[in-house]
């Protein structure tokens, strides 16, 4: 929520600094995310007047201007064509600082220029501040401005805006007035309410009737304004809209947007001439269509609320008006709507249509009965104040019985654990707009309509401690509490250890949503029968891109890699340790299975398959988990540069180079991308291993090289395991060459291995070495139908 300080001080009489106001908001539970200073970054720019213009002797497109800047007259060379003698313009003096540059005196084609005349863009201002700011050329100012005056002061460009984060339960604070109440109470001053005074004039215009048949519209008020005068809004109003992120349009539309920001009430203005035989608030019919103000046509459903007349749709309730009932230059009378629509209905309609607006955002957060009534009155007062039209009809809502909370001072103090004086309680609650009556230790509090979040004494206690001060609370244990020794579980320790290992490998941790889009399964080329397609669907998703729970992490990792590539970052190592969700059955009757999955992604010219394989195998070896390696058949991996790791007969890890088709599906143009995952369940389930040490060998080891010709599909990992089991003297086996060529029969390959024999109690003799090698050859010939390559 944007909060301009000047607008705030219109309602709160205070000399507090921006820092003090920010601290006050933070102390009562609001986060000030950013402080924006308009006019910051501009210095040395003054109001000047052009006294004379002469052609440049050496450049046809340049002109030499004599400019009065108050204390002196400067020579300034310009190429602008829209300036004339007598024009008042902003002048950046020698040494002036602009948002995008610093100005220094310099010669232009042989003539010294001692400054620069500025455009609106160079001053970073819009039409909301000064007319003509968007013109392609020098900004021409009002001739009544004082020559030599600083431009920030002359154009009133200086303003501070706080960007305040509002909690979900405080819909009343999504407005300037709502935040003003909080600041006034925190600073122990009173809030001044904006004017809602207006006169209802006589008129022959017929006030349209209103019929409500939709249950999603509990309150609907309206007003009628005649003699509409469409014109630009005054600059003070335009500037406030602009600083809050809304572009000014015309006085009628600007008034509705102004009330949305100031009071928090969305309004809609209908051209009265476009309404036939009254207003009807009803549910849409399935297939009914409306063209909205954005020019797009939308097909509606029966659970969506629609504003219509007797013949046609006029607006999608709470979301956006219709194109043909909106305000135009020919509008002479306006039917003003101020209503309350069910927030769930507006949210669902907006999401299903893919259509959002400032009004729908506010309705989704919640609109209270106070803002419906007060917002309409405030708008009518502005119509009169700005001479935008005459109020000729007003239809208020029926008064509501106020909510009352009865409690005791002891109940509140008992909940807070401290003694808040009775007077402080009354002062704070009254400052927040609540009516308080007391009877000894009893409090009866009448809740204003704008505080729909207040339900019982616990809410009163929360309000009191916010303003009385959290720092006054005592640190105490609950009566049944006990001091315990904290610590992580075995599973948590293992997962943290895995993260440490990945950091040691130079990888950065990423975090993605637990939700995804079911279209990613097609991007991964998963088969239709793949169980990972059986994702748990979210009943009420934020968007279609986040509509199902993740059954794998690979797609998220690839998407992050693709995003980094588009931003010219293509050398990195990333990992994510998160959960995947697997339904036990459909329809679901119990919570899903949650799996701890580690996903790793490598990108860069120096990365290869073996780097990724080393990461995963090192993790398993770190936890003393034996594994086997086999070719992988994952459809998103390159079939010739991928592998699975098997533990206890189950595939727990798949890794390899990204398949070219998968890369194309995710928009990755770089070819050197490697991804993989490992199910950490086998790691977290493994018991801590007791490390046993043995002395280094006393006798020298012996190395021998053997090369076998085996079938192409023979796995080297299985050959190594077989060699290690062939003889008890064999310590290490290392692959150092694989050869395919003319000397090897087609369908076969040559695998060369280095075998190390480690004696335990004596130096090996030739006969013992030969016997070990014979055992190895016999094992490999028998198991792999291999031949020894001579």
Number of helices: 20
Termini separation comes to: 80 Å
What is the number of beta strands?
38
Radius of gyration: 38 Å
C-alpha geometry: extended
Biggest pleated-sheet summary: 7 strands, mixed
Spell out the blueprint of helices and strands.
Blueprint: E1 2-4, H1 5-11, H2 18-27, E2 31-38, E3 43-56, E4 59-68, E5 73-78, E6 88-98, E7 101-102, E8 106-108, E9 111-113, E10 115-117, H3 151-154, E11 159-165, H4 176-186, E12 210-212, E13 219-226, H5 235-243, H6 251-262, E14 267-271, E15 279-283, E16 289-291, E17 297-299, E18 305-308, E19 313-316, E20 320-321, E21 334-340, H7 343-353, H8 358-365, H9 369-385, E22 390-395, E23 403-408, H10 409-416, H11 422-431, E24 435-439, E25 442-447, H12 457-468, H13 490-504, E26 508-509, E27 515-516, H14 520-523, E28 548-549, H15 554-566, E29 572-582, E30 593-603, H16 609-622, E31 628-630, E32 637-647, E33 650-658, H17 660-665, E34 673-679, H18 681-685, E35 702-711, H19 716-726, E36 730-739, E37 748-757, H20 766-784, E38 787-788
Parallel strand pairs: 12-15, 26-29
Antiparallel strand pairs: 1-11, 2-11, 3-4, 3-6, 4-5, 6-7, 6-10, 8-9, 13-21, 13-22, 14-21, 15-18, 16-17, 18-19, 19-20, 23-25, 24-25, 27-28, 29-30, 30-34, 31-32, 32-33, 33-34, 35-37, 35-38, 36-37
């Amino acid at each position: 929520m944007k909060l301009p300080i000047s607008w705030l001080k219109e309602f709160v009489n205070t000399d507090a600094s921006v820092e003090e106001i920010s601290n006050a908001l933070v102390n009562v539970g609001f986060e000030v995310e950013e402080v924006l200073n308009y006019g910051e970054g501009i210095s040395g720019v003054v109001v000047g007047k052009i006294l004379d213009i002469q052609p440049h002797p050496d450049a046809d497109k340049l002109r030499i201007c004599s400019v009065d800047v108050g204390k002196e007259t400067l020579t300034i060379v310009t190429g602008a064509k829209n300036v004339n003698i007598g024009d008042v313009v902003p002048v950046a003096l020698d040494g002036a600082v602009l948002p995008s540059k610093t100005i220094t005196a310099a010669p232009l084609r042989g003539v010294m220029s001692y400054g620069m005349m500025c455009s609106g863009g160079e001053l970073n201002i819009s039409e909301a501040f000064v007319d003509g700011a968007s013109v392609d050329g020098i900004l021409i100012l009002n001739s009544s401005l004082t020559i030599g005056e600083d431009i920030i002061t002359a154009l009133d460009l200086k303003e501070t805006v706080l960007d305040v984060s509002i909690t979900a339960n405080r819909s009343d604070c999504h407005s300037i007035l709502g935040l003003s109440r909080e600041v006034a109470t925190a600073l122990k001053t009173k809030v001044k309410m904006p004017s809602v005074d207006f006169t209802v004039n006589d008129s022959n215009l017929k006030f349209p009737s209103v019929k409500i048949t939709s249950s999603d519209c509990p309150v609907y008020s309206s007003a009628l304004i005649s003699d509409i005068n469409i014109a630009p809004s005054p600059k003070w109003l335009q500037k406030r809209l602009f600083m809050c992120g809304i572009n000014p349009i015309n006085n009628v539309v600007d008034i509705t947007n102004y009330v949305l920001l100031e009071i928090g009430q969305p309004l809609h203005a209908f051209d009265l001439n476009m309404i036939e035989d009254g207003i009807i608030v009803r549910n849409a019919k399935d297939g009914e269509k409306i063209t909205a103000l954005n020019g797009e046509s939308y097909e509606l459903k029966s659970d969506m609320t629609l504003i219509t007349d007797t013949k046609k749709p006029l607006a999608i309730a709470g979301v956006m008006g219709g194109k043909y009932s909106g305000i135009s230059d020919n509008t002479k009378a306006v039917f003003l709507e101020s209503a309350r629509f069910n927030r769930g209905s507006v949210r669902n309609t907006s999401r299903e249509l893919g259509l959002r607006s400032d009004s729908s955002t506010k309705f989704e957060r919640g609109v209270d009965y106070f803002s419906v009534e007060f917002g309409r009155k405030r708008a009518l007062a502005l119509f009169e104040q700005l001479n935008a039209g005459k109020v000729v009809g007003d239809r208020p809502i029926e008064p509501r019985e106020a909510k009352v909370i009865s409690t005791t001072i002891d109940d509140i103090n008992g909940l807070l654990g401290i003694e808040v004086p009775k007077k402080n309680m009354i002062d704070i609650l009254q400052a927040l707009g609540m009516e308080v009556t007391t009877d000894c230790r009893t409090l009866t509090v009448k809740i204003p309509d704008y505080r729909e979040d207040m339900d019982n004494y616990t809410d009163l206690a929360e309000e009191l401690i916010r303003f009385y001060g959290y720092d006054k609370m005592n640190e105490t244990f609950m009566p049944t509490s006990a001091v315990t020794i904290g610590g992580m579980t075995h599973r948590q320790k293992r997962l943290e250890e895995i993260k440490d290992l990945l950091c040691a490998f130079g990888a950065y941790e990423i975090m993605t949503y637990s939700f995804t889009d079911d279209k990613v399964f097609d991007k991964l080329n998963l088969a239709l029968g793949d169980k990972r397609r059986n994702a748990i669907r979210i009943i009420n998703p934020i968007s279609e891109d986040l509509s199902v729970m993740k059954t794998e992490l690979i797609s998220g990792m690839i998407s992050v890699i693709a995003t980094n590539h588009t931003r010219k970052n293509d050398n990195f190592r990333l990992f994510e340790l998160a959960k995947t969700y697997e339904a036990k059955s459909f329809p679901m009757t119990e919570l899903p299975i949650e799996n701890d999955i580690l996903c790793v992604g490598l990108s860069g010219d120096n990365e290869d398959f073996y780097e990724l394989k080393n990461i995963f195998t090192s993790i398993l070896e770190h936890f003393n988990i034996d594994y086997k390696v086999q070719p992988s058949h994952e459809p998103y991996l390159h079939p010739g540069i991928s592998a699975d790791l098997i533990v206890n007969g189950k595939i727990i890890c798949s890794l390899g180079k990204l398949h070219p088709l998968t890369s194309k599906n995710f928009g990755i143009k770089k070819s050197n991308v490697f991804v993989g995952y490992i199910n950490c369940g086998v790691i977290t389930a493994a018991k801590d291993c007791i490390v046993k040490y043995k002395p280094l060998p006393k006798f020298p080891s012996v190395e021998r090289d053997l090369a076998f010709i085996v079938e192409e599909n023979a796995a080297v990992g299985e050959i190594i395991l077989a060699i290690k089991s062939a003889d008890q003297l064999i310590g290490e086996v290392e692959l150092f060459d694989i050869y395919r060529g003319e000397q090897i029969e087609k369908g076969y390959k040559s695998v060369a291995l280095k075998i190390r024999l480690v004696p335990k109690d004596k130096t090996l003799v030739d006969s013992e070495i030969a016997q070990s090698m014979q055992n190895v050859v016999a094992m490999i010939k028998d198991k792999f139908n291999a031949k020894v390559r001579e």
